[in-house]
């Protein structure tokens, strides 16, 4: 059976991610990949897990996370463990964005310390995007958005009225520092949200705008 457009997109994205990691591993001992959560990346994770890479030299972390247990159904860490860190890719070092603290405000210092030990700048950030223009956990309705867009700290705790759980997000600064930026989106609603983002520059209205000049390679399929 022929692969669907979304499966083909995931394969192409995995090839691009593997090529970026290989290129950086040719000159550095370790390379860091930052991935997003949500539903879109699953076929990408599965395709990338099959890539031939020296996975023991690869570090993986998340662009953002819900403040939930790592085995919760909506944990981005769980998604990465179940779909990316499989087979040879299980040899990669994964750094989660949660701690044993009750809240992200209490845990953010520990998470930031863990993040600082990674091989920055990241080789590649694979961003996702919601229909509201959020990316990572940079949400338009988050009181912490201005901080997350301006701080040089690696991570910020956020509470967003539109979201059921508190979250932690990499800061825009830390995401910007990556050598390469890709946006992985599917469906007409996200194409429309991206089209709208391209018509203006208010990052507080549509936070994805903070990455439109990184440059940003857009991987989209219907
Ligand atoms: O909440 C989140 O949403 C975005 C997009 O998720 P999707 O399910 O529409 O693919 C994601 O990029 C982000 O990491 C996630 O935490």
Describe this structure in words.
- It is a single chain.
- With 222 residues, this protein is an alpha/beta fold.
- It has one domain (5-220): Rossmann fold, CATH 3.40.50.1360.
- It has 7 helices and 9 strands; from the N terminus they run H-E-H-E-E-H-E-H-E-H-E-E-H-E-H-E.
- The protein has helices spanning 5-25, 42-49, 76-83, 104-116, 145-150, 172-176, 188-197, and strands at residues 31-35, 58-62, 64-66, 93-95, 124-127, 155-158, 167-170, 181-186, 217-221.
- Helix 1 crosses helix 2.
- Bound molecules: the ligand O=C1O[C@H](COP(=O)(O)O)[C@@H](O)[C@H](O)[C@H]1O.
- Ligand LXAUTJHC binds at residues 36-40, 63-64, 76, 128-130, 136-137.
- Hydrolysis of 6-phosphogluconolactone to 6-phosphogluconate.
Secondary structure elements and pairings:
Elements: H1 5-25, E1 31-35, H2 42-49, E2 58-62, E3 64-66, H3 76-83, E4 93-95, H4 104-116, E5 124-127, H5 145-150, E6 155-158, E7 167-170, H6 172-176, E8 181-186, H7 188-197, E9 217-221
Parallel strand pairs: 1-2, 1-5, 2-4, 5-8, 8-9
Antiparallel strand pairs: 3-7, 6-7
Helix pairs in contact: 1-2
The structure holds the ligand O=C1O[C@H](COP(=O)(O)O)[C@@H](O)[C@H](O)[C@H]1O.
Task: Provide a quick synopsis of the model.
It is globular and about 40 Å long. It has a single domain (5-220), classed as Rossmann fold.
């Amino acid at each position: 059976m022929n692969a669907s457009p979304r499966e083909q997109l995931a394969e192409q994205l995995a090839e691009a991610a593997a090529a970026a990691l290989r290129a950086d591993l040719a000159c550095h001992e370790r390379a860091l990949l930052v991935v997003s959560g949500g539903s879109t990346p699953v076929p990408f994770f599965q395709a990338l897990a099959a890539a031939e890479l020296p996975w023991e030299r690869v570090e993986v972390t998340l662009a953002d996370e819900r403040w939930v247990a790592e085995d919760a159904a909506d944990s981005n860490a769980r998604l990465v463990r179940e779909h990316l860190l499989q087979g040879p890719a299980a040899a990669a070092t994964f750094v989660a964005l949660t701690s044993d603290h009750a809240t992200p405000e209490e845990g953010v210092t520990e998470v930031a310390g863990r993040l600082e030990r990674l091989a920055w700048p990241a080789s590649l950030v694979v961003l996702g995007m919601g229909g509201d223009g959020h990316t990572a956990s940079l949400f338009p309705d988050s009181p912490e958005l201005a901080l997350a867009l301006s701080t040089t700290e690696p991570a910020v705790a956020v509470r967003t009225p539109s979201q059921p759980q508190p979250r932690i997000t990499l800061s825009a600064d830390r995401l910007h520092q990556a050598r390469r930026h890709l946006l992985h989106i599917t469906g007409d609603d996200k194409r429309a949200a991206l089209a709208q983002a391209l018509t203006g520059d208010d990052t507080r209205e549509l936070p994805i705008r903070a990455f439109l000049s990184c440059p940003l390679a857009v991987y989209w399929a219907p």
